[in-house]
Amino acid sequence: MSHGVNPMVPFPLPGTQLVHVGRQPIFDATGDVVAYELLFRGSMDAIEAGRRDTYATSQVIVNAFTEFGIDEVVGDRTCFINMTREFLTGELTLPFGPDHVVLEVLETVDVDDEVIAGVSALVAQGYRIALDDFVWGSGAERLLPLASFVKLDLLQGDLSHLDEIVTACRQYPDIKIVAEGLETGEQLALSNRYGFELRQGYVLSRPQVLTAASLTPSKLRRLELIGALSAADADIEKILTIIAGDPALTMRVLRASNSAAVGATSRVSSVRQAVVMLGLAHIRQWAMLMVVDDVAEATEVQMADALTRARLCENVASAFGAKSDAAFMAGLITAVAQMIGLSPAAIAHQLPLDIEISAALERGTGALGQVLRVVNAYERGDLSEVAAAYAGEDLSGTVMAAMRWSTMAVAATQAAAA
């Protein structure tokens, strides 16, 4: 299991939620896994998707790209994601680029002129299209010139016209056929006989549900962020304040900036750098999807504790020759890790962190490692270690200042909600 994805977490800790995403492998003719279809799952033990609507698609996107991190879910393989009409026509914007992603046009989508225009625009942007549960005569054949994949259901589909459908698909040499719904050896043999390039089904592998604990951003912060992002003259400082003041939003922005689909390649050492890298347009898209996927907020106490730790790391950074903004981020990440029951190292693997921050979180090295050690020692009550590390100085005043700052930050949030 990859870092940060823990299928054994039975219950969310206070102020956190369990998030889930299903994935089912897609194999090539030699038996190698070449892609995963990402599926909506509402719980760890969900066998079937349960729903395939806009909410389901939004939750799959948010969970896969910002909770787990897409690299954690599919690695360097391609992911297939079900798309509803709203995404295909541009009514809802896709917050990721075309690399390593295939957009599946669900069989429930009415393929009219608006859908064809929307899909044509997506293909022009570099997205690849798959036609799910393809049936000749349903109208989906109008999308064949735009498709890269056609999925044929060999379990529940009408196989009486299979020859004609395959012949029609083969008129487009760039189309690969995915045989899905494979549950028997006979269906697998049928795939071999027709030379289908890709295969998917229970006879090869059942879907797996990935589960992780996640700190839940407050509904207020999401709405506040959308409001700030939607302003005609978006105030970058206000946006930074909103994001930096909510640990969960910070984590999601960082994960989004590291998403392979967004195309980020640099390493970041501050929230500001992550925001600039991701861009306001992408952050706006993520925030809107998060509203679709909205759930309860973290407790005030947890929020204050996390911000106190981050602020304390920031305030002591100069004594160790560390950068204050990097120290704030390192402190915040360790606090979030504790909230969701993961190690700082596990979270570090998911984020596009500066090498110095990664080293501190994973191995405790460097100036930032010293900052974290002295803060950890203070929280344990080991004052002798604090005195030795902090040149004999008393940290109590610095701690009180950090607590006052975090209390004010949380109070400001509550006042805005009133």
TrEMBL record:
<dbReference type="Pfam" id="PF00563">
    <property type="entry name" value="EAL"/>
</dbReference>
<dbReference type="InterPro" id="IPR035919">
    <property type="entry name" value="EAL_sf"/>
</dbReference>
<dbReference type="Pfam" id="PF08668">
    <property type="entry name" value="HDOD"/>
</dbReference>
<dbReference type="InterPro" id="IPR013976">
    <property type="entry name" value="HDOD"/>
</dbReference>
<dbReference type="InterPro" id="IPR001633">
    <property type="entry name" value="EAL_dom"/>
</dbReference>
<feature type="domain" description="EAL">
    <location>
        <begin position="1"/>
        <end position="221"/>
    </location>
</feature>
<dbReference type="InterPro" id="IPR014408">
    <property type="entry name" value="dGMP_Pdiesterase_EAL/HD-GYP"/>
</dbReference>
<dbReference type="InterPro" id="IPR052340">
    <property type="entry name" value="RNase_Y/CdgJ"/>
</dbReference>
<feature type="domain" description="HDOD">
    <location>
        <begin position="215"/>
        <end position="399"/>
    </location>
</feature>
<protein>
    <submittedName>
        <fullName>Diguanylate phosphodiesterase</fullName>
    </submittedName>
</protein>
